[in-house]
Amino acid sequence: MRRTASEREKSAHRRLAACAVAALCAFGRGASAGDGPTPALPGDDPVALVTAFEGGVKAHLKDRAVEALVADTKEALARHGKADGKVRERYGAALASILRGCTDDGVQKAAIVAIGETKDAALFPPLRPFLAQPNKKETPPLLLAAVDACGKLVADEAVPPLIAIVKDSKSMPAAQAAMKALGSFGGSKRMRATIVKELSGTVGKDRPGVGRKYDRDAETGETYSQGETRTGEEGQNRWASLAPALVEAFNRMTGQSCGSAEEWLSLVDKYKNRLHELFPSVR
After folding, report:
1. Which pLDDT tens digit goes with each residue over 219-248?
2. pLDDT tens digits for 80-101?
3. How many angstroms separate the Cα of 250 from the Cα of each of 123, 165, 282?
4. 209: phi > 0 → left, psi -120 to 50 → alpha, else beta; which?
5. How many Å apart are CA 100 and CA 23, to the nearest integer?
6. Long-range pairs, 185-190, Cβ under 8 A, ≥24
7. Which end of the chain is less crowded, N or C, counting CB atoms within 10 A of the terminal residue's CB?
C-alpha cells in the first residue's frame, strides 16, 4: 500500500531518532571503556550530531575518562571550525564544560589550548580562573597556557587580568607571556590605548637612569617622592625581561617599527593625549 507524504515524513523522523538513540548508547559504551573520541552519528544532521556529541562528553565527565575527554577536546575543536550558528556555540560550550568539569591537568590544558584555537572571544569566561596568580613569585601550572589562549581569543574582557599579570607578577616568564598576548589586541579599538598606557607606565618605572624623583613640600619643608619608580635589583630584572617584550608587543599592535623600549616610551609620552593616533586605522 502506498504511503502518503505525511506518513513518509513521520517515518524519516523515527529513523533519525533511532539513530540518535543508538549513537548515545555507543557514547555511553565508549565512556566506560575510555576508548577515545566519540563515534560520529550516522547521517549528516548537524543538530543530531552535536546532541550525540554532548551526550558522549557528559558520560565521559561522569566516568572521569581522561583519555576520552582529551580526544573530545580535539573533536570539539574540529567540529566547531566546521559548524555555524547555534551548533557552533554548542561545540564551544562543550569545550567549556570539559574545562570546568574535569580537574585533571592534562584534560584542562587540552581544553584551554582548544578554546584558544577556536579564536572565539565568547569562550573567554571559562579561562578567567586560570589567569589567577595567588603567589606572585610562582607560575601556576596552567597559567601560561591560559595566557596564550587569551592572545588568540582577543576578548576585551581578558585585558584587565593580563595587564594585572604584567604589573604585579614577580615571575618574569608569566609577565612576558601576558605582554605578548596583549600584543594581539591592536584591532581592539576599545582596549588598545589602555594597553599602551598601562604597559608603558609599568615598564617605565624600571627604566634605567631615571631613578626616583623627589621634591620638597613648600609648607613643611619635607621631601617626598614624586613617582613610584622601582630601584635596585627588582627594577633591573624587570627592565631586562620586559623591555624587549614591550617593543615586540607595541610594534605588533601598531604596525610601527620602534627599535627599543626607550624609543617607545618617548613616543607614548609624545602622544599621551592622543594615543589612538598610534594605530593604523586612524593614520
Report:
1. 555 543 434 555 578 889 999 999 999 999
2. 999 999 999 999 999 999 999 9
3. 25, 17, 16
4. left
5. 25
6. 185/154, 185/156, 185/159, 185/253, 186/252, 186/253, 186/254, 186/255, 186/279, 186/280, 187/154, 188/154, 188/156, 188/159, 189/276, 189/281, 190/156
7. N
